[in-house]
Design a protein that fits this description.
The chain is an alpha/beta fold. The protein has helices at 12-23, 39-44, 46-64, 80-104, 163-166, 183-195, 214-228, 321-335, 364-369, 385-390, 418-430, 435-439, 450-461, and strands at residues 2-8, 28-32, 108-111, 113-118, 121-125, 131-141, 145-147, 160-161, 175-179, 198-202, 231-233, 237-243, 248-253, 259-264, 266-269, 273-275, 308-310, 349-351, 356-361, 374-380, 396-402, 408-415. The protein has three domains: 2-146 and 274-344, 3-Layer(bba) Sandwich (FAD/NAD(P)-binding domain); 160-271, FAD/NAD(P)-binding domain (3-Layer(bba) Sandwich); 355-461, 2-Layer Sandwich (Enolase-like, domain 1). The radius of gyration is 23 Å and the shape is globular.
Length: 467
């Protein structure tokens, strides 16, 4: 078969690239090594984790907060297998939706492991051992990433687990050690903490979610400690992890140089992810990943081999599904002769704990490194009428604006539904809005988004109304 565009990998970046290619009139194929489409995100990542986050939040609220609302529940019980089953149902529905979109857009789907024979030939080895080859004028590598580990940790997928196994445990554990205080560790750690698991997080740095503004890491640590009882061992380096049939022991060294020993039923290794580029036959087309396993690309996301592109987690940048989607669209529109563009500074980052955490643009640390003069506007959710009504008063919105021009340079949020509110900040910054522009924009009352307006008012002229 001859194709204009072939995509290796059917995660968010890959399947979105395939759909956009088909929309633009290209004869398109997509290759996926697993039986279902959707990649890590839909199968063992974004979607199932959010399903469990929502379920665990409902349980936690019923247990801790419903009485304040006048709702009395007797004999509240957790049906953990049902929670896992609902999660899987959500996954299955999303995955079948992607399969439908492939048919709708007349995209040929190949299941099997794809690898390069040469720059225009892809070999696809199916599970039954059969191998087929297709020809393609252009190829997009969108094979995503897999959980990373530490050199001395052997992940047995029984007691020492990754996020994949943590999404499908048979029963609720009494205790869990999480190595890594980033997005994955906090999201899955909070799921189990809400359900009653004793969760201890071991983090090498002095702040959680270290890639985000440090004020967010400090606030989410305070909230998770207070609300869920999660334990945090900061500035602590893991030195050994050993598993037995029924438990795991983790040894670490704290900031004072003392050895810390922890025991739990499970150890979740959440130290990030690494690009999945093995077994693609890159050597057959003259491509060599860098030391991090990433494939180098130019501004059009084209590799050093003409007609071969790479997107998402296999290239430099944040490992985010929405980044991969935008990159897939950029490549296909570039192939169609259009002039697409991505402003990487304005790709939002979100942590789906409760409260949620979201950010876009520069952090304070980055602005200080640039010696750029800036001003700050803060607004706490405890001053929001909508947040008080829903009992979600933890957190704040911080706006960083240029000291001279008032242009919004960064927005950092922790609070209710900020994963959705951050979109307004992204739009504002795409159009280079000033803090005053948002402050003069009417927001519905009472809403959580009013907090963003108030923070902008505080930044533009220190004129927030409700603080």
């Amino acid at each position: 078969m001859q194709y204009d565009v072939s995509v290796i990998g059917a995660g968010p970046g890959g399947y979105v690239a395939a759909i956009r290619a088909a929309q633009l009139g290209f004869k398109t194929a997509i290759i996926e090594r697993y039986p279902t489409l959707g990649g890590t995100c839909l199968n063992v990542g974004c979607i199932p984790s959010k399903a469990l986050l929502d379920s665990s939040e409902h349980f936690f609220n019923a247990q801790k907060h419903f009485t304040a609302h006048g709702i009395e529940i007797k004999n509240l019980q957790l049906n953990f297998p049902q929670m896992i089953a609902r999660k899987q149902k959500v996954v299955d529905e999303n995955v079948s939706g992607i399969a439908f979109l492939m048919k709708k857009n007349k995209i040929d789907v190949y299941h099997g492991h794809g690898s390069f024979v040469d720059k225009n030939t892809i070999s696809i080895k199916k599970d039954d051992g059969e191998t087929v080859q297709i020809q393609s004028k252009n190829v997009i590598i969108a094979t995503g990433s897999k959980p990373a580990s530490l050199p001395f940790i052997e992940i047995d997928k029984k007691r020492i687990i990754t996020s994949t196994e943590a999404l499908s445990l048979d029963k609720l554990p009494k205790s869990m050690i999480v190595i890594g205080g980033g997005v994955i560790g906090l999201e899955l750690g909070s799921v189990y903490a809400r359900l009653g698991t004793k969760v201890s997080v071991v983090e090498y740095f002095d702040t959680l979610i270290p890639a985000m503004d440090h004020s967010l890491g400090k606030e989410i640590q305070k909230v998770l400690q207070k609300e869920l009882g999660m334990e945090f061992l900061m500035k602590t380096k893991v030195t050994a992890v050993k598993a037995t049939a029924k438990k795991v022991n983790v040894e670490a060294q704290n900031a004072e140089g003392k050895t810390v020993s922890l025991d739990a039923e499970y150890c979740l290794v959440a130290v990030g992810r690494k690009p999945y580029t093995e077994g693609l036959g890159l050597e057959n087309i003259g491509l060599t990943p860098n030391a991090k396993g990433q494939i180098p690309v130019n501004e059009h996301l084209e590799t050093t081999v003409s007609g071969i592109f790479a997107i998402g987690d296999v290239i430099e940048g944040a490992m985010l599904a929405h980044k991969a989607e935008e990159e897939g669209i950029l490549v296909t529109e570039y192939l169609a002769g259009q002039k697409p563009h991505i402003n990487y500074l304005l790709i939002p980052n979100v942590v789906y704990t409760w409260p949620e955490v979201a950010a876009v643009g520069y952090t304070e640390s980055q602005l200080k490194e640039q010696n750029r003069a800036y001003k700050i506007g803060n607004f706490p959710f405890k001053a929001s009428g909508r947040a008080r009504a829903s009992m979600d008063t933890a957190g704040f919105i911080k706006v960083l604006a240029d000291a001279q021009t008032d242009e919004i340079l960064g927005v950092h949020m922790i609070g209710p539904r900020v994963a959705d509110i951050i979109a307004e900040a992204v739009v504002a910054m795409e159009f280079r809005a000033s803090a005053e522009d948002i402050g003069r924009t009417c927001h519905a009352h009472p809403t959580y988004s009013e907090a963003f307006k108030e923070a902008c008012l505080a930044a533009s002229a220190n004129r927030a109304i409700h603080i």
